[in-house]
Amino acid sequence: MMDRFLQRFENVLDPFEDDAGSGEDGVYRTGHLRPLPAETNAFIWHFALQAKGPLIGLLIAGGLTGGIEAVLFTGVGWLVDALGHSTPETLVSDHFWLIAGLLFVTLIGRAALLFASSVLEEQVISPSFYNRIRWQSYRRLMEQAYSFFQNDFGGRLAQKVQQVGMATGDFITTILQTFWSFVTFIFLTVTILGAIDWRMALVLVLWVAGYVWIVRNLLPKIREYGRASADARSIVSGRVVDSFTNILSVKLFDSSRQEDAFVKDGFVYLVDMTRRSTRAITEVRTVVALLNGFMMSGVGVIAVMGWQAGSVTAGGVATALGLVLRLNQMSGWMMFNINGLVRNYGTIQDAVATITRLPTLIDAPDARPLVPAKGAIRYEDVTFHYGKGGGVIDHLSLDIRPGEKVGLVGRSGAGKTTLVNLLLRLYDLEGGRILIDGQDIAGVTQHSLRAAIGVVTQDTSLLHRSIRDNIAFGKPEAEEDDVVLAAERANAEDFIPSLRDPKGRTGYDAHVGERGIKLSGGQRQRIAIARVLLKNAPILVLDEATSALDSEVEAAIQENLVRMMEGKTVIAIAHRLSTIAAMDRLIVLDKGAIVEEGSHEDLLAKNGLYASLWRRQSGGFLFTESAAEAESAAAE
Ligand SMILES: Nc1ncnc2c1ncn2[C@@H]1O[C@H](COP(=O)(O)OP(=O)(O)OP(=O)(O)O)[C@@H](O)[C@H]1O
Fold first, then answer.
1. Å from CA of 570 to ligand 1 middle
2. Which residues 6+ apart lie within 8 Å of 570 measured at CB?
3. Helix or strand or coil: residue 41?
4. Which residue stretches, if any, does this entry annotate as coiled coil (predicted)?
5. 383-426: per-residue pLDDT in tens?
6. Mean pLDDT of the chain
7. Where are the alpha helices (DSSP H) in 246-255?
8. Whose CA is nearest to atom 25 of ligand 1?
9. Which band of pLDDT confidence, cut at 50, 70 and 90, is reported for residue 21?
10. Which atom of ligand 1 is nearest to the CA of 414?
11. Quick one: which atom of ligand 1 is closest to the CA of 147?
12. Are 588 and 409 in contact (CB under 8 A)?
């Protein structure tokens, strides 16, 4: 029953709410998420505002908790005085309301308050609010361009998303609850002690000043190192995940020792940063211990002297000592919390730098959906160097007619993949433009552009999901029959029914990838082909689409590939020239420029680069650039 009661509070905040950005502010446009504030305080504030109500509740509960603590100590003083003035027989009748009040506050008031603040923190805020921060951060990262992910470690980014949710949530709740109840307690203590003897209040004011000095002068050092160690932790995770994900290369090259050194480097940095921060922590703890000693003995001496002078009652001494002892205890715990606050602040600062970075490749303000008609593609004086000074693609122009099947040929590194990646707008051009059916791809939405192009690449990465989800990846709403039909046409039906993953799921439900079944390269490629068949986009890009298939499967699938290409504009890249020789037109690329074009026969007759590549093809594969150059150098 308690469970059901508590569950009601769990839906107060939606863990997945996001601000889709209305585009009204002129910075961001519809279709893109509103960016998160890039300044740390504004970032924290941005999230705090999303849970205003519950957080104000937490603030009130925090204040009341501090208040109750102070009231209880005052009550203890009154009780001591009452004991001094009464006999055992008359105590209850003389001081009934005091005793009843104290019992009520201790038994009911305090428990009710703690329950309310627990519900607020644990049910309303913790899971949902923390998750909302993670979710919004994750989605901002997903808006980043392909190149963003190429330049960072997946593990590091994942850790940032995890950490930022935890750190921001903890930071806000600690301030509102712990910190605020501490401040209320101090304020009430100063007031209560001031009423007993103003000199005690003065000692406390000096103590608070000392505390503020520590926070301003000693804590920034901890914060600085906190930030550095958070970054160091991310670096270590990034490196560890990188080693684990590339474990095959590590094993094949027997380079585990090298990897150890690489990862250890990260750990050394982490340990160094942590040591610096822990040194600063010890420094702070020592100063706090001295300051608290001064505060407790100061108040104690003044209270006892007041009692000697007859201006302070025994109850007053009890209240004063009780309050300062509690303050001492709280301040140790508070230092721990402030330390946590500072560390969390550092973590947020560190994550914010990555998470709030604006995506470099976004839809134009007036982007419209691409209206694919016949699938005409036009590269107009395209230049692209991956942001470097030169090279890769230079002033390239190419016209592909609707429905034309074009083969891109060239040595390794000639720029073939780059050319199709530019068509997909995975990168923005550095010069020229690319048009699809007369529409500049820079002016249409990325979503509609990629929906119009089906791609099968060389290294098919399957997601760690079921076979069905993998095939329906480009068309999640697809019917089961269509998924099966696509699999049949990709010749994947002969192996899918017999699949069984370690958890016992079979066929289309079997999971692939990590902790799932491992497919061969050729099987993976057939899934990828099924995925594209199902997507049925008007433009097809086949980048080494059949490189992992053996000749038998390739022959079986060839017919389907031909059918898949029917009525579509196709750009195919293949090192095995025999697989693309039958295309309408072959474009030969060299060093980012078109050097020859024509049909297979035309090009053979021309006896240029294509003809030499064709002749050199040995065992079905192309020589690498360096081998080819070495050969031509030897021939000269
Ligand atoms: N992300 C990147 N950043 C910088 N340079 C890159 C990047 N990707 C590729 N390049 C460079 O661009 C050039 C063209 O690469 P690309 O992958 O387009 O060649 P390719 O013809 O497809 O080669 P292959 O046949 O080996 O796949 C190469 O010199 C490569 O080093």
1. 21
2. 404, 405, 406, 539, 540, 541, 542, 583
3. helix
4. none
5. 999 888 778 888 999 999 999 999 999 888 888 999 999 999 99
6. 85
7. 247-252
8. 412
9. very low
10. 21
11. 1
12. yes
Which letter, b or e, does each residue of 344-367 get, where b requires 16 or more Cβ atoms within 10 Å of its Cβ? bbbbbbbbbebbbeebebbbeeeb
Q: Tokens 């050319």 map to which residue?
A: 419
d(CA 586, ligand 1 centre) in Å: 20
* pLDDT over 80 (residue 120): yes
> For 175-206, what is each residue's pLDDT tens digit?
988 889 899 999 999 999 999 999 999 999 99
pTM, 2 dp: 0.77
Domains in the chain, ordered, with CATH? 20-355 (1.20.1560.10), 377-452+537-635 (3.40.50.300), 466-526 (no CATH)
In this structure, the residue with its CA closest to atom 24 of ligand 1 is 412
d(C-alpha 458, C-alpha 453), whole Å: 16
What residue ranges line ligand 1, CB within 6 angstroms?
A: 150, 386, 392, 410, 412-418
CA angle 286, 291, 292 (to 5 degrees): 100
Q: Which residue among 382, 396, 417 is best mutated to probe the pocket of ligand 1, counting the most ligand atoms within 8 A of its Cβ?
A: 417
Amino acid at 598: G
Tell me the mean pLDDT in the region 509-520.
78
